[in-house]
Amino acid sequence: MIGRVRFQYCKVIIATSMVWMMLDVFVLMYFTDCTDGPRCSPQEVRVMKHEPEKANPGFLQKIFPKGLLSGGQRNGPGDGGRAVKVPSEREAEAKETFKINQFNLVASDMMALNRTLPDYRMEECRKKRYPPVKSLPKTSIVIVFHNEAWSTLLRTVHSIIDRSPNELLEEILLVDDASEKEHLGSKLTDYVATLPVPVHVIRTGARIGLIRARLKGAYVAKGKVITFLDAHCECTEGWLEPLLSEIHNDRTSVVCPIIDVISDDTFEYITGSDMTWGGFNWKLNFRWYQVPQRELDRRGGDRSMPTRTPTMAGGLFAIDRDYFYEIGSYDEGMDIWGGENLEMSFRVWMCGGKIYIVTCSRVGHVFRKTSPYSWPGGVGRIINHNTQRIVEVWMDEYKDFFYRINPGVRATEYGDVSSRKKLRQKLNCKSFRWYLEQIYPESQLPIDYHSLGEVFSLTKGKQIMADDGLCVSASGSETKFAKCPSSGPEWEFVPKTMALRHVNTDQCLGKGNGVPSLGKCDGSEGQQWTLGGLKES
Ligand code: LR7
Ligand code: MN
Q: pTM to 2 decimals?
C-alpha cells in the first residue's frame, strides 16, 4: 500500500511539471484573445475556452490528469478546497451580488472552474476495491437549475468530468427550468459542446419547478443509472464508483453520498460528518440527526459501510433508471421545491427499497440560508401543497396527528392524489407505522400517538418541549403546540402525584386523545407522567 502511494506521488510530480509546461504553451496559443474582464483570470481561462478539445478529444484529461486535480498542487483562489479571500476592494461588490444567488458570487467567480480538492475519503474507503469500471452500470447525471450562477454550475460539471471515470458517464443532462440569465442561454449550450463528455442542455420552457424538471431529465436519460445533483456541487475523488457499485449489488438501493458543506461565504470545502443520517420533525421538515448506536452496530462498527438512512436530503442521489420508474419516480403533482425527498424516502422504504448514505462517496454542496429565486404563488402555499400530498398518500393514521400539530396546512389545496394512492396499492407498500417501527424507531413521531408523553421533555425553563422548537402551551381546557419558549414558566412536575401542573391555571395535563388536554388535578392515572419518557433537560 505504502509503495503504491509513493509511486503515485512520483507520477503526480512528473505529470505536474509536464502539465505546467504544456499549459504555458496552451495559454499563449489560445488565450491571447481574452478580453472580457475578471473571467479572463488565468485560473479560469484554462478551462473557459478549450476549443482544442473538439479537434483533439481527450485534451482536457491530458492537461488536467486526475493526480493533479485531486492533489491540491495548484495554488489559486479556492484550490485545495481552501477558503477564498475576496480582496478588500471587491468586498462591497461581493456584498451587493450576494443576493443574486444567496452566496458569495465574487468568491465563486475568483476560483477555477476546476479548482483542486484534496482526497477527503477515509483510509478504509481508499483501500476498497470496486468492480472494474467495465462491469459497473453507466450513469446519466441530471442537474436541474433555475438561474444558477455560471461558475457554480460549470464547476459542478467540471468536477463530475474530472473526478469520474469517464467510461461511467453516459451523459450529463442540464435541465434549465426557465432561467432568465443571459449566461445560461446559447453561451451555455456552446460551452458544453466543447466538453469531452456528452453534455446536453434541456429547456423546460416554462417554470415547472425542480421536481417536474428532474422528471424531464430522467425521461430522456439513457444511462442504466440516473444520478441527480444540485447545480452548485463539487464531486470529490472517487465519489462515483461506490455509488454505482451499491446499485450494481442491489438495484433496489437508492444511494446518496455524504453531502459536505461548501461555504456560501468563502467557498471553503468543509467535510461533513459520516455519523449523520436523515430524519424529519413534526412539521415534516427534513433534518440531519446523529446515526443511532443501533445502526452503528448493524454495520459492525465499520464506518466505511453504507448507512441505512430513514430519509434523504433529496438533491444528491443515484438510482437504477428502471427502478426509478417502477417505484413511482416522483409525484408530478408537486410544485417548485420541497417535500419530494420525504415522499420518495417513505415510498422507497415502504414499498420494498432501501436508502443508503454511502460514506465512501463525498460530494460538496453550497448550503444557502435562504432561497434566491421566486416562488410563484408563495412559499407557504407551495410547501403546504407538497407536504399534504405526502401526508395524504403515505402517512395513514399519522395524518390526523400531523394536522393536529399543523392545523394551518389544511387550508391549502393539494390537488388530486388518487393516482399516487393507486400506485401505493399497486406496489403493495407497507404501512407508515411499519416504517416508523422498523426503519425509523428513533423518530420524534410517537409510535403510538395516544401516549404522546413518551416524546416530551420538560425543560429547565419549565416548558414542555415536544419536537424541535415546539412547546406545549395551554389554551383554555385544550393544549396547542407553539414555538418555544411561549410565555414564561408554564409547567411543573409534581413528583408526589406524578402530575404536570399548569402553573397559571392550576390545572393538570391529561393524556387526552391525540393531543393532551387540561383538567382539574385529580391524581388519576390519566394525569400521571413517568420520568422515563419525560426527560428533565
Ligand atoms: O423552481 C425551481 N427549479 C429548479 O430547477 C427551484 C429549484 N430548482 C433547482 C435549483 O436551481 C437547484 O439546482 O433545484 C435544485 C435544488 O434547489 P435548491 O438548491 O434551492 O435547494 P436546497 O439545496 O435548498 O434543497 C434541498 O431540498 C430540496 C427540496 O425540494 C431538493 O431536494 C434539493 O435538491 C435539496 N438539496 C440537497 O439535498 C442538497 C443538500 C441540502 C440539504 C439538506
Ligand atoms: Mn441546493
A: 0.80
